[in-house]
Amino acid sequence: MYKIGYNDLKILLLAEKHLLQGHKAWVDQGTLLGLVRDGHFLEWDNDIDITCMYDQRPKIRLANIRELFENGYMVVTSKYDYTLKKLHGDKSFKKVDLTFIYKKNGRYYKSYSDYKNQNFLAKVFEKTIKELTGLLKKVDNINLKVFMWMIINPIVYIYRSYFMKTVDMDCPQWQLDLMKKNLLPAFQTLLIYEQPEPYLEFKFGSDWRIPKKDWDYASQDGAIQKEKMEKENV
What we know:
The chain is 43% helix and 21% strand. By secondary structure, it is of the alpha+beta class.
């Protein structure tokens, strides 16, 4: 049985209700690594990674936005992912990143944000979003919060979909074919791989069982490196 803390369990249940809305998703990346290797989330990881197929992505409705605000949380969306986070909270509160696997040129990929190599325009978007979100945090009226979200989220969507630098992460067909099971009895549609070892080795290397706090996805992630090597060989 995996050990998931109260705050993490709460935001995951909110994610299942308001983000997934009956659609199936599964824990991924460092979140999966921590659960399989350590039995709990990585202590230094500030987000919870879950994944679903692009053609099964849910539609976020205003009713979901309103209830999330009432619970002290907010969601922002993009073409490639949704992010759910606590509106007021310290670093002990993780966010949930729901990332979509999409098909391009007959193959499957996920898009990963390259925060280290953003251009000037992306940084302007980032600063504007932070300022607007700061104003939203000061508002108590739920209706006004929802109205402000309707202004902020399109900016976030445009920024994260078209201006933020991203990299493709290879998702081989065998990965998509891996069998899955419920993460915990508390969840209905949030899953985990039944046999995650092949994926973890592909993603983190044959020594994935050894903790590496300074692990760098840009240079060590197997899904990214495979894609780079194949492009170089074309």
